Amino acid sequence: MIRIFWLGLLCLVLPNVATGEVVKGIYGVPSIAERDPSSYVGDMEKAGVNAVFVKPDRDTVKWFKDRGFQVFVSIDAYGGSRAWKQFPDSRPVLADGSLLGENPEYACHGGACPSHEGWQRERLSYIAGLIKDFEGQGLFIDGIWLDYIRYPGRWSVLDPKIPDTCYCERCLGKFSKEMGIEFPIGFSRRDAKTQRREEGQRSDVSGWAVEDEKDGMIGWVAGSNTKEVSRWIKENCPYEWMVWKKRQINGFVEKVRGVLNEKSPDRRPLLGIFLVPWTKGERGNGVSYSFAQDGFELAKYADVISPMVYHKKVGRSEAWVGVMTRYYEERVSCEVWPIVQAMDCTVEEFAAVMRYAGEGGADGVLGFPFRAVEKAGLWEGFRGFNRAVNLLKSTDYVDYSDKKVRGLEGEKVSEESGVIEIRPEYGECGEWVVPLRGCEAGVVYEFRGEFWQRVWENGAYPMVLLWGREFLLNTHWKSKVFQPLRVYVRCPGEVRDQTFRFKNCNPEKEIRMRNPELRRFYGFAPEPGVPLKRDFFDEHFFPIGVYGANLKNLEEIKKLAINTVVLGGTGKKLREQVEKCHEVGLRYVLSTPHDPDRLPVYLDQISGYVRPYDMAFYVNDEPGIHSFPTGKAVDVNRLIKERFPDCATCMAIVRPQVCGEYKDGADFFMLDQYPVPFMPFGWLSDSMDYCAACLGSADYADYADYTEKKVKGLARGRLAAVIQAFGGETRFDHPRLPTWQEMDCLAFLSVVHGSRGIFFYTYSWIGKTEEGRERLGRVVGRLNQVYPWLVVENSGEKVGVEMLSGNRFDPKGRAAVQCCLKRKGDELMVFAVNTIGTGVECLLEAEKVRGLEGKKVSEVFSGEDYVVRDGKIRVRLGPYGVKAFIHRLH
């Protein structure tokens, strides 16, 4: 049964955005009193410019509205110094107690304190009055953009120095009150009436202090103690201070949203916001901690966000415009119209930034400023912008009413349906099918959609078919929320199925989809400055680690010859664990906060006691199945690299196809497939190959067509493995612990496929009993027997395997034994791993082995010698058995 129903689309919320025409706007158009528009409007229209930012002048607004342009107005929220004249106490106070502008370093800086309610009311009143005045004249403003909606600071220079504000008495009092944080320095409680009298009989206490609702007392911090209090905040509650500052900015934008929402949807101006183009991963997340401007939070109130991507001002490339556009576009539900720089650009450069904006996913674009565009004759550059076309013809529905799909016959399908739900009966599949527009052969496209399920079931996933190719959406993990999922596919040379199909073959399981899109995908090179760490710690160290370590079991873990632990937590507990690792000689991988807003404080806290040469960072856990934003993952990685550039970062991955999406979010990818007892062991090795192919590709096109036979460009140097060391008790999906042979097989199978580190999950399970510890210790001991070889990169030479035994194939029909060859000096090492649970016999052959005819090779673990006959080694392996053959050439 298929049910198709309407839940509402974004166009109901954003009526002026979703009208169909892509906006190409220009900022800074002069009033008609300053310049006759007829002298340039023809050039604008020829270039496709259809929107203007002008001063709120009636005649100018009317002229452009009559000509068919959308007209936008920019409102200065907290910029400049005009507020200082009307409200002297709105001038921000720096951390040293000086006023903004007094210090020569910030002499040219302006800005009003965002907590000043008097200035907020003035701005809100101005916006409401502006809309009302134009309505009274029969005019409609299409949009209002908030500028300087942040704390002060000049960002648009090559080396920005941002003042640390605002520590005025009002801000400190409100922060203390609203966050429940008492200052031990210079803080007292005073009677509100006395304070009001002493400060000039001001009637609006809330404009400069905080009135206690219970006893009429206010928080007060003496100006002479500002330096001490600001230092105390940085040392004790920097995160809370940042959160509170963001609330001042967000709160004002929410109030502006409320003013606009008083108008009917058809007469409601768009709310746009100009954003500082800093990611949270740069400058210690200064966009949050210094500016308190969170574009992702502000987007919840806005119809459009406009990152000010002035590439030349900040010394960036044209492609950076696309990088920043995608950074926001990936995570916000409102539209993204970047505003791009025209100053000092040629027509070709201006067209390039416009093109990159479109390739980054921009919904519209703005040029800045008008005078630069006109002076240099850059109008043609606007033609460089094109919004990527959605190939899904959402209004042309194809209804299949055959035996596979029920419930569609005679059903009226809305052309604006927002949600498609499929719930098949037993023995049937349900499909929703729409035609696709034409694609460009050989070009990679990105499918995006949001999917919903009531309860997650392992193996019960939706499927999409693009041009006849099936994609199982096995990253669909979340329940009772719409989870965004992505698929990358190359347009075939010969299109045989010109449709998109959403398919559900899971009986009685309802799966919903909304907002499907299929657009051309453009890849961008990562921004420079984030070093890739080639080793977890150093080139001679191979981590043999465990999860589940704590202060009580670190010595016990060390006795098992494990050399690395994964540690979580914060504060005193984490410090004690790290210091214990130093004491017993363990290296450690720290599980960090995944939130870029929390990470700077965490890094500050650990910097006093960690040893970078003993440390790596665990930056994410299964980002693919959590649909963790790729830009956010990059932010986390960049913040760590900015602070600890010589430390490696790693993340665990269960669905290998997402490795390419997160390749700039970590140095190492830890494949954590747990096959015991139901899955084939080749799941791990296949996943490692797939991940390596993704990481080694030049762009998404290379691994959109990944197959087991096409694994060129493998980046095995960035792989690690998490080996299953849990099971039993309440784990219905893993009802028993793995045997030592199974763990041994998985560990060495990962080595065969290029693992640069091995971690066992988890000591809290395997270490509970003496039997479990014995199993783990045995595997770790065998790894340590060949430890010098673990850091040696696998040779590119293939080791041939000829199976002799009756049991010879894995579940995919391949040879049950997998091998690799390593070379170190004049020594050779061959690892052979039996991936199935029965004994096997085989012949191993390699070019290096062929030259050893009649000579002996030694098997490390048993000490037995094997003779090379006809260039081959005859080997018997027990169930999940592993052998390691070594030979010195000279």
What labels describe this entry?
890 residues; alpha/beta; eight-stranded parallel β-barrel; 25 helices; globular; disordered N terminus
Notes on the structure:
With 890 residues, the chain is of the alpha/beta class. Helices cover 27% and strands 21% of the residues. It has an 8-stranded parallel barrel, surrounded by 5 helices. Helix 5 (117-136) runs parallel beside helix 9 (238-261), helix 12 runs parallel beside helix 13 (347-359) and helix 21 packs parallel to helix 23. The longest helix is centred in the first third of the chain and has 24 residues, at 238-261. The model is unreliable at 3-19, 187-223 and 395-417 (pLDDT under 50).
Summarize the structure.
This protein is of the alpha/beta class and 890 residues long.
